[in-house]
């Protein structure tokens, strides 16, 4: 799941990026409101975490522009402004949730899970296919009841394929889900991750659609 973080405090942004990536999110970050609008238009994220006090335009202006695009994009306001009027204005302007700084990371993650549920994603629950159980809340994987250790990107790859079971995921789609801006992606990175993941999964779980990408079927052949 991809998050766009709009935050001009670079120290806070750096800490959030590290924490969110540890939780299995792909995170892109911008510090300016106009950059955020361009990013949403060109590459819509799954979730938007938005500060109100930005250097160029206000977070509310960003929110207004984003909502004009008519996207089903959950928006969490993350700001030091904790007055009731600020909260009401943000929520009335189209925000889905509002979290005041300072905050605990666990609360932020819980609120993101709530927003993900509104998207109809399975990030908050468990997915089971062909003897593989993926617990997307606790980031645990089991095969035939036995826990399996996966790297962060192996886990993200498996989640992307299982959440989209029955649909082919292209290499480009998977790269976007596994890597954020500025992260180096070698040309065969997805192929390597798929190869490593296959060694830990049941035979034929991940199928190659030649010239297109990869998929996991919803039902057994």
TrEMBL record:
Gene Ontology molecular function, alphabetical: phosphorelay response regulator activity; transcription cis-regulatory region binding
Q: Which SMART domains match?
A: REC, Trans_reg_C
Matching Pfam families: Response_reg, Trans_reg_C
Any idea where the Response regulatory domain is?
A: 2-116
| Residue ranges of domain OmpR/PhoB-type in the record | 124-218
- Alphabetical list of InterPro entries matching this protein: CheY-like_superfamily, OmpR/PhoB-type_DNA-bd, Sig_transdc_resp-reg_C-effctor, Sig_transdc_resp-reg_receiver, WalR-like, WH-like_DNA-bd_sf
Which keywords belong to this entry? Answer: DNA-binding, Phosphoprotein, Transcription, Transcription regulation
- Quick check: keyword Flavoprotein in the entry? no
Residue positions, PTM 4-aspartylphosphate? 51
Might you report a single GO cellular component term? protein-DNA complex
Which example biological process does GO assign this protein?
regulation of DNA-templated transcription
DNA-binding region positions on the chain: 124-218
In terms of CDD domains, this protein maps to: REC_OmpR_PmrA-like, trans_reg_C
Record keyword Transcription regulation present: yes
Protein name (database record) = Response regulator transcription factor
Q: Which organism is it from?
A: Pseudomaricurvus hydrocarbonicus
């Amino acid at each position: 799941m991809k998050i766009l973080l709009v935050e001009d405090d670079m120290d806070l942004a750096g800490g959030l990026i590290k924490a969110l990536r540890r939780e299995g999110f792909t995170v892109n970050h911008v510090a300016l409101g106009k950059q955020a609008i361009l990013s949403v238009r060109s590459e819509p994220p799954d979730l938007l975490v938005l500060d109100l006090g930005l250097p160029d335009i206000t977070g509310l202006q960003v929110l207004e522009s984003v909502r004009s695009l008519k996207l089903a994009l959950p928006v969490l306001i993350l700001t030091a402004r904790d007055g009731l009027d600020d909260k009401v204005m943000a929520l009335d302007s189209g925000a889905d949730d509002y979290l005041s700084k300072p905050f605990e990371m666990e609360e932020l993650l819980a609120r993101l899970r709530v927003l993900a549920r509104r998207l109809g994603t399975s990030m908050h629950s468990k997915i089971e296919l062909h003897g593989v159980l993926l617990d997307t809340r606790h980031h645990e994987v089991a095969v035939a009841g036995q826990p399996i250790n996966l790297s962060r990107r192996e886990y993200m790859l498996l989640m992307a394929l299982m959440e989209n079971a029955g649909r082919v995921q292209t290499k480009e789609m998977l790269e976007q889900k596994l890597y954020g801006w500025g992260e180096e992606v070698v040309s065969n990175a997805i192929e390597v991750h798929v190869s490593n993941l296959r060694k830990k999964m049941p035979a034929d779980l991940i199928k190659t659609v030649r010239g297109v990408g990869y998929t996991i079927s919803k039902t057994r052949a």
